Amino acid sequence: MMVELLINIVSWVSILLGSGLVLIGSLGFFRLPDFWSRLHAASVIDSGGMILIILGMCFQAGFSLVTVKLFLIAIFLVITGPTATHAVANAALVSGLLINNRSSNDKVREEELKIEKKE
Fold first, then answer.
1. I need a labelling partner for 61 at 20 to 30 A (CA). Which of 44, 94, 100, 112 fits?
2. Which long-range contacts (CB under 8 A, 24 or more apart) does 101-106 make?
């Protein structure tokens, strides 16, 4: 009786914390000014919020085949979420998306000029 109550409390706290992270991340995704900030908000939604929600669902399901499936989904999210975020960020950087009002090519050129001036 007491163990079931504790498991219910832990699972609902996890689900509510995960939902809160998803809500905050979603608001940040729409409210933040530039691509890089929005990308960070999207990664928080994916990594933090969804893992906490899945953990809460695992506690609710108990030890069964559903828990194993949820665990596999969590592993998939942990591996693919940061990888996808990195791929998107790398593609944006390579394409020359502005960073602090300058493109990445401008920064590279500034570094080349500094090296040339030293020589």
1. 44
2. none
Helix (H, G, I), strand (E, B) or coil at 97: coil
| Spatial contact of 93 and 104, defined as CB atoms under 8 Å apart | yes
Length reported for the chain: 119
Q: Is 102 left (phi over 0), alpha (psi -120 to 50) or beta?
A: beta
For residue 99, what are the β-bridge partners?
Answer: 102
Helix axes 65-94, 35-44, angle to 10 degrees: 170
φ, ψ of residue 2 to 5 degrees: the values are -70, -35
| pLDDT for the residue numbered 14 | 94
The model carries a pTM of 0.70
Sign of the torsion formed by the C-alpha atoms of 33, 35, 38 and 40: negative
Cross-strand pairs, 102? 99
